[in-house]
Specification:
about 600 residues; mainly alpha; flat
Length: about 600
């Protein structure tokens, strides 16, 4: 880990940077010394010198060009000078750099090309075209990069000339740069190189990097080559990159439509190439199949769900096929592979798929059953409510919870009666789920069954019954909660405190104040939370009494509750506790202070941040 000290300036560096600032104020008179600072060993000082020279603009441009041509003391200094000229604000900087080319050669010409390219200087295109003819390949490659950065008709024409020249060391970089421009004019010369064994691979990848739908047809010619498998993999990798880059530019829909129109006949070739090869190549083939395949393609991709490195690509491909083709959806649902069935379910969004999804509630695989529950909720299939209630008894908890969530999402006229029946079921697990549904939907007709469930022999059922009772509007609820608050069961008393915190009225407030003095720590904890949620200032004194509680989490709950009470006493306590030696108490106080907009709150929080 990098220490804070290593990111700070040393005293010597600070002094040199301050001196650079003074040199900038001198203008042209300070340029020579600033150029000397480009050779500083400290990167921070060099950066300051670069920024200073760039800001001086025309005053520094000519001296910098002269230094590049004549002195060039070190690689660090050269790179800094190039950067300063690239970022210079001077109006004559570009012309000074261009004129430098007439009196220098070799490495200086490389620097000139880089500067012109970084400045996006259209007036330098003619010079760059001349540099393409230089005998030094490094100079030519710098010119190629610069032309790509500048763009425009003249630049693209120059790059195309280099591509068509088939000069081995220049054509390759020209292909890469031309592809990055995204200009459609580069597609034809790149496509012409697909017939040349020396350039085929890089030409195909370059066509992919264009992100253009126009590149799909020429790429399809790779399938006519002799080494079909190798070329299919190359085609898939190129199409995958083309598709990705099209997504960046917003043209992905047109690209995918073109791929489907052109490449459907090639699906068998892609399937054949699926096995063997590098992981990246196979993943690309899978993604292409997801774009251009049909229902039968699901069976080819499904086995790859078992390979960890390819699972994500295979899942995405199956889901793409399922979204585009109902036949693919049915094929996936009927697959013998549970992973295929599970992969298809998350993208089901139409009600016409409901009958097929309902059948999967009885699937042998629990993940499929759970995802079927989620899918039925997503498509709003109220006809599935009854089978979903049957799924509440699933031996797998994930399925049971998914079924309960789906029931809560869907709702229907039969839901209350089915929920009441579930709350009376002989199996405790189903009773619990039934009570959760009643609590979520608040069915007042369920009062009797919920009241009876409080005496259930399963303590978890009884606890959920208290929560469900609190969700009902029946007038008898408050009286029953007051009665349960005197229960010998700590679990039930704690449940009452949670329930009271969500109900309004003096009766519930009195229960919470009573709970603050309970013998059980968790009852006190939930009572403190409830008083904070209710927010009555009259509870402040009782909450303050819990600040000395022997149980840490009760003290924290009391602090959190006091933070919700806008009284002078609670505010002063928060200020005091913000400096507590107990980290939990201090943290709770600071969080509470953060809910206030007083100036003192901001000052204290800033102080806490600075304390480390």
């Amino acid at each position: 880990m990098t220490s804070g000290a290593s990111l700070s300036l040393t005293a010597a560096e600070r002094e040199r940077i301050e001196h650079i600032d003074r040199l900038v104020a001198l203008g042209e008179a300070g340029v020579d010394e600033l150029i000397g600072a480009l050779s500083e060993r400290s990167w921070t000082v060099r950066r300051a010198a670069v920024a200073a020279l760039a800001a001086l603009g025309d005053d520094a441009a000519r001296p910098l060009c002269a230094w590049l041509a004549e002195k060039r003391t070190s690689e660090h200094a050269i790179a800094a000078a190039v950067e300063a000229l690239s970022g210079s604000i001077g109006s004559t900087t570009t012309s000074e750099v261009i004129s430098l080319a007439s009196r220098a050669g070799g490495p200086v010409l490389e620097d000139v090309a880089r500067i012109v390219g970084r400045r996006r200087a259209f007036e330098g295109v003619e010079l760059l075209r001349l540099l393409l003819e230089d005998s030094n390949d490094n100079v030519a490659m710098a010119a190629i990069e610069a032309l790509g950065a500048i763009g425009g008709t003249a630049s693209i024409a120059a790059l195309i000339t280099v591509i068509e020249s088939k000069n081995f060391f220049r054509t390759f970089p020209a292909m890469q740069v031309a592809a990055r421009t995204g200009d459609p004019r580069v597609i034809e010369p790149l496509a012409a190189l697909l017939d040349d064994e020396w350039y085929r691979f890089e030409a195909a990848r370059a066509l992919g990097r264009t992100g253009s739908a126009l590149a799909i047809a020429p790429l399809g010619r790779l399938l006519a080559a002799n080494d079909e498998t190798a070329n299919v993999r190359l085609l898939a990798a190129s199409l995958d990159e083309l598709w990705t880059r099209a997504a960046w530019s917003g043209a992905v829909d047109h690209v995918l439509d073109t791929m489907r129109q052109r490449l459907v006949p090639a699906v068998p070739s892609f399937v054949k190439a699926l096995h063997g090869g590098e992981i990246a190549e196979r993943a690309a083939i899978i993604r292409v199949l997801g774009a251009v395949g049909g229902a039968a393609t699901v069976d080819a991709i499904a086995p790859l769900l078992g390979e960890p490195e390819l699972r994500a690509a295979a899942t995405d491909a199956i889901q793409r096929l399922v979204r585009a083709d109902d036949g693919a959806l049915l094929r996936a649902f009927e697959s013998a592979d549970p992973e295929t069935r599970a992969a298809a379910l998350p993208v089901v969004t139409t009600h016409r798929s409901a009958p097929a999804v309902r059948k999967l509630l009885a699937d042998e695989d629990p993940e499929v059953r759970a995802r079927a529950c989620e899918a039925l909720a997503r498509i709003g299939d109220t006809a599935a409510v009854k089978p979903l209630f049957a799924a509440l008894g699933d031996p797998n908890p994930r399925v049971a919870h998914a079924a309960a969530s789906a029931i809560q999402s869907l709702g229907s006229a039969e839901t209350p009666a089915l929920a009441i029946a579930a709350a009376r079921h002989e199996r405790p697990a189903i009773r619990r789920q039934g009570l959760r549904i009643i609590a979520y939907l608040g069915h007042d007709a369920a009062y009797d069954v919920v009241r009876a469930a409080i005496d259930d022999p399963d303590p978890r059922v009884a606890e959920l019954a208290v929560s469900a009772l609190a969700a009902l509007t029946d007038r008898r609820v408050d009286e029953v909660l007051a009665e349960i608050a005197r229960s010998p069961s700590e679990i039930l008393r704690a449940a009452v405190m949670r329930a009271a915190g969500h109900r309004l009225g003096d009766r519930m407030h009195a229960l919470l104040e009573q709970g603050v003095e309970d013998d059980a720590a968790w009852v006190r904890y939930y009572a403190c939370q409830g008083l904070g949620r209710v927010g009555q200032s009259s509870a402040a004194s009782r909450l303050m009494g819990r600040l000395a509680d022997a149980t840490p989490h009760v003290r924290v709950a009391a602090i959190e509750a006091l933070a919700r009470l806008d009284t002078p006493e609670s505010w002063q306590l928060l200020l005091s506790l913000a400096r507590s030696r107990d980290p939990d108490e201090q943290r709770a106080a600071l969080v509470g202070i953060g809910h206030h907009t007083r100036p003192a709150a901001i000052a204290l929080l800033v102080e806490a941040c600075m304390s480390g």
